[in-house]
Amino acid sequence: MLSLYTYLKNWLKNEEGQGMAEYGLIIALVAVVVIVALTALGGGLTGIFDAITAQLGL
Questions:
Q1: Sign of the four-CA dihedral 41, 43, 44, 50
Q2: Cα dihedral value 7, 9, 12, 15, nearest 10
Q3: What is the residue-wise DSSP string for 6-50?
């Protein structure tokens, strides 16, 4: 029979799912960076696309 101490020690050492959590954090960070970049560049990109549209006569 396992003692409570041994059970808790083994439970705390269990690292299943740690890799998936790290990938999730990386994906969330990339998403935040993309959103911030698109927000910051939004006005400039609109001007560029408007200029291209005007040149093409659309």
A1: positive
A2: -90
A3: HHHHHHHH--TTHHHHHHHHHHHHHHHHHHHHHHHHHHHHHHHHH
Query: Token pair 């696309």 is at which residue?
Result: 49
Cα Rg of the chain, angstroms: 25
Alpha helices in 3-17 (DSSP H): 4-13
Task: Count the helices and strands in the chain (H runs, E runs).
Answer: 2, 0
Phi and psi torsions of 41, nearest 5°: -95, 0
Per-residue pLDDT of 4-54, as tens digits, reads: 888 777 767 776 667 777 888 999 999 999 999 888 887 788 888 899 999
